[in-house]
């Protein structure tokens, strides 16, 4: 593929010459003298005075020019403000323009909330469909089917005559070997069917609908253009296949892809508003807000969503975008709450509330969970990137359908025998977060009283929630073994699942790994306190008979630690977790675990999972968090090098249409510098390839008398010419007269900072006003890769 992104020009008309002896400016060479009169300008018949369709737009896999886009928006805003003083109608149009941003946020929130609610309901139903069907109506999931039944008991609330397992429907029995085999086969077959439908739809209709989408959205928000990535087909297919992929039982979540879905909604709705349709920088502000909406509906955490957008995905996040993100996240959360997909008046499946305060000494196990999360995060990133690289570079990548089916088959075969892997990851997390109550019948709550009775049957109890000393019962020991096996299974299978050609999020599998580890540690601490409450560590705060350790809290802290280790989120992670649980008093444990996890993971590898995937795919993303410490200069990075051919540059006058078209056809660069003459190399400006091509095509089509030998002018006025001369093509209006320039001695540290903070595509290198070279965004990325001992040729959109 051609280097169209930022490989804008290879310097091609002057070898690098650092001599200080530069000839003085010569105004006579094809230029005209204009007397400057305030508020006046030469009247030129310029073809491009009118808006030409396509001018100012960008090719696919190109980077936008942030400075140019912001300048266009300021000009538009200035024009509307000036007109608003002239008439009432113009004033109303000005007000509607100001209000359009808020209206767009309202629509994004409503659409994303509605889609998320639909996805939640459909995924819940199809997940339960693998185990059985409701006789009252096949569209009811297991929980809703048994809600209206009068024959459920508190101990077995999920069993009712209206819900039939596949074994009951096919062989008439619910117990025994035959029933187990039938249920097993139906579980595996439906899992394979759902996975096959998901991968087939993605391959056939929307290849961009696979994966989580967050690495690509980060790249798009940094200014890169990937046409179709946020289109209507991607939205439709991602929504359908996300339900299928989650229902298949694969170790993936829907939270990351919901960010992609919300951004697709935002991109589609932007087309109804001129302000956002025509300006790529303004559209990216909307997409930043949509990222917040995605997390808001994924976790029911509107504030966490705004912070996630700010901390993790956004490249440019002005204060106005913060307010609008907050509003859009609020609308989305309200919409989801109105739909009530889980029937519990909550926004998420695993909302829990803990009642026991934590003790200062518990910070030690919380920090241990943070260390585990950091180690798991670093291991997962390395293993997953190695597997994805193998997929890219071997024959494995040629068979995406087969890969998905094999992984689904292995997942289903290993998951069914263990009840903690058979249930969906969201249900598993919900169960692990749960604080055992008096009447809980789950195996995780199978404790025995001092008399040997199961706690559910204990009548004489003490303590705040009716639980006395809680020695583990046989059910709890079984659950611990099953959870330990589930932990190993999830750690392995998530590595190969993330990155397959189906929609796959990473939040829920990471949280599941951490929640299992946390619950195991929590139960261990609880039993230690029960059997050794006379130890000095426990004596002060864990008196006999008191319920002082909450295993569910450890699961929550473990979930936060593992998610933090994989994504390197900190502030937004803690806020998302406490919005999930409603427990403000648990912020300190969450903060301790999140920070420890980040420190440990950063010590083993600087990149989070999304940055690692951006680098693997070769996207031109300039990481804002990565620091540049090397003492190189602009001259070390600019092109042309001393051995390269000279710079391809345009002259402001003296070139014909044929000359310009030949230069365009002979090169693949995305733009060209314009100089006064080839000899002086005095810089005039910079022109984009696409603008040049469109302008010349329009001139040939609509301007009379333009032929191959017609002159092309970038000057401000007509040079002297004979009356019979052919009409010239004037392209001054597409010329950027203020391109960013640096000198050859500018440290690369400053150049990198300029590119990051201004979002530049390219920067010209001059000395004493004379053009010597160019540095593009891709040159910077290659140089940074080289300095970090990585392959510089990996910076390419693969």
TrEMBL record:
GO terms for molecular function: voltage-gated chloride channel activity. Its main location: membrane. One of its GO terms (cellular component) is Golgi apparatus. It is found in: Endosome membrane; Membrane. Residues 638-702, 734-792 form the CBS domain. The keyword Membrane applies. SMART domains: CBS. It is a multi-pass membrane protein. It comes from the Eukaryota. The keyword Phosphoprotein does not apply. Keywords: CBS domain, Chloride, Endosome, Ion transport, Membrane, Transmembrane, Transmembrane helix, Transport. The chain crosses the membrane at residues 88-110, 184-209, 230-252, 258-274, 286-310, 360-385, 397-416, 479-500, 506-525. SUPFAM superfamilies: CBS-domain pair, Clc chloride channel. Belongs to the chloride channel (TC 2.A.49) family. This is Chloride channel protein. It comes from Triplophysa rosa. The lineage of its organism: Eukaryota, Metazoa, Chordata, Craniata, Vertebrata.
């Amino acid at each position: 593929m051609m280097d169209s992104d930022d490989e804008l020009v290879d310097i091609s008309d002057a070898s690098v010459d650092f001599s200080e002896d530069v000839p003085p400016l010569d105004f006579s060479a094809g230029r005209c003298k204009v007397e400057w009169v305030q508020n006046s300008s030469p009247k030129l018949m310029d073809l491009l005075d009118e808006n030409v369709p396509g001018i100012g737009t960008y090719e696919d896999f190109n980077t936008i020019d942030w400075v140019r886009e912001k300048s266009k928006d300021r000009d538009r805003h200035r024009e509307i403000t000036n007109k608003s003083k002239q008439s009432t109608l113009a004033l109303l149009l000005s007000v509607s323009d100001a209000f359009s941003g808020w209206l767009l946020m309202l629509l994004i929130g409503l659409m994303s909330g509605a889609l998320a609610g639909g996805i939640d309901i459909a995924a819940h139903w199809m997940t339960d469909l693998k185990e059985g069907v409701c006789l009252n109506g096949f569209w009811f999931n297991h929980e809703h089917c048994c809600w209206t039944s009068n024959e459920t008991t508190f101990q077995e609330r999920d069993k009712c005559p209206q819900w039939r397992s596949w074994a009951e429907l096919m062989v008439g029995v619910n117990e025994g070997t035959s029933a187990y085999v039938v249920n097993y086969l139906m579980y595996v077959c439906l899992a394979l069917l759902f996975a096959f439908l998901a991968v087939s739809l993605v391959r056939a209709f929307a290849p961009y609908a696979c994966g989580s989408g967050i690495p690509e959205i980060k790249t798009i928000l940094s200014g890169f253009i990937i046409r179709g990535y946020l289109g209507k087909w991607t939205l439709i297919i991602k929504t359908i296949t996300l339900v299928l992929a989650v229902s298949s039982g694969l170790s993936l979540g829907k939270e990351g892809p919901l960010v992609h879905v919300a951004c697709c909604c935002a991109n589609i709705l932007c087309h109804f508003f001129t302000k956002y349709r025509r300006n790529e920088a303004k559209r990216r502000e909307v997409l930043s807000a949509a990222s917040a909406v995605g997390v808001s509906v994924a976790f029911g955490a509107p504030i966490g969503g705004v912070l996630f957008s700010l901390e993790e995905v956004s490249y440019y996040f002005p204060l106005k975008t913060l307010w609008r993100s907050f509003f859009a996240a609020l609308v989305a959360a309200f919409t989801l709450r109105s739909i009530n997909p889980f029937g519990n008046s909550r926004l998420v499946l695993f909302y829990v509330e803990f009642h026991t305060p934590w003790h200062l000494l518990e910070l030690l196990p919380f920090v241990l969970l943070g260390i585990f999360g950091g180690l798991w995060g670093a291991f997962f990133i390395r293993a997953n990137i190695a597997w994805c690289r193998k997929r890219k570079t071997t024959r494995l990548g040629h068979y995406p359908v087969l890969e998905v089916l094999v992984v689904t088959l292995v997942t289903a075969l290993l998951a069914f025998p263990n009840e903690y892997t058979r249930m969906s990851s969201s249900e598993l997390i919900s169960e692990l977060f749960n604080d055992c109550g008096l009447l809980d019948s789950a195996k995780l709550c199978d404790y025995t009283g001092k008399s040997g009775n199961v706690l559910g049957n204990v009548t004489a109890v003490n303590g705040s929630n009716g639980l006395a000393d809680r020695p583990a019962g046989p059910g709890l020991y079984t659950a611990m073994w099953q959870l330990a096996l589930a932990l190993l299974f999830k750690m392995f299978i998530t590595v190969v699942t993330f990155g397959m050609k189906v929609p796959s999020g990473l939040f829920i599998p990471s949280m599941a790994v951490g929640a299992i580890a946390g619950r195991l540690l929590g139960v261990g601490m609880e039993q230690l306190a029960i059997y050794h409450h006379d130890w000095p560590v426990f004596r002060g705060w864990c008196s006999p008979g008191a319920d002082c350790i909450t295993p569910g809290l450890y699961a929550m802290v473990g979930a936060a630690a593992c998610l933090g280790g994989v994504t390197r989120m900190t502030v937004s992670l803690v806020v998302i977790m406490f919005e999930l649980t409603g427990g403000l008093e648990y912020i300190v444990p969450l903060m301790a675990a999140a920070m420890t996890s980040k420190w440990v993971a950063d010590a083993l590898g600087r990149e989070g999972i999304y940055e690692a995937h951006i680098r693997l795919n070769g996207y031109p993303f300039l990481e804002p968090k990565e620091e540049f410490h090397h003492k190189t200069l602009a001259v070390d990075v600019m092109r042309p090098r001393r051995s390269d051919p000279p710079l391809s540059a345009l002259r402001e006058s003296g070139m014909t249409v044929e000359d310009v078209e030949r230069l365009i056809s002979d090169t693949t660069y995305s733009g060209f510098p314009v100089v006064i003459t080839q000899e002086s190399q005095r810089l005039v400006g910079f022109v984009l390839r696409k603008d040049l091509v469109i302008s010349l095509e329009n001139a040939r089509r609509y301007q009379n008398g333009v032929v191959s030998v017609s002159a092309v002018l970038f000057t401000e006025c007509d040079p002297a010419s004979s009356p019979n001369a052919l009409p010239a093509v004037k392209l001054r209006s597409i010329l950027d007269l203020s391109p960013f320039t640096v000198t050859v001695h500018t440290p690369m540290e400053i150049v990198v900072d300029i590119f990051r903070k201004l979002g530049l595509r390219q920067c010209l290198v001059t000395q004493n006003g004379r053009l010597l070279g160019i540095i593009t965004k891709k040159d910077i990325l290659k140089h940074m890769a080289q300095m970090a001992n990585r392959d510089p040729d990996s910076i390419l959109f693969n």
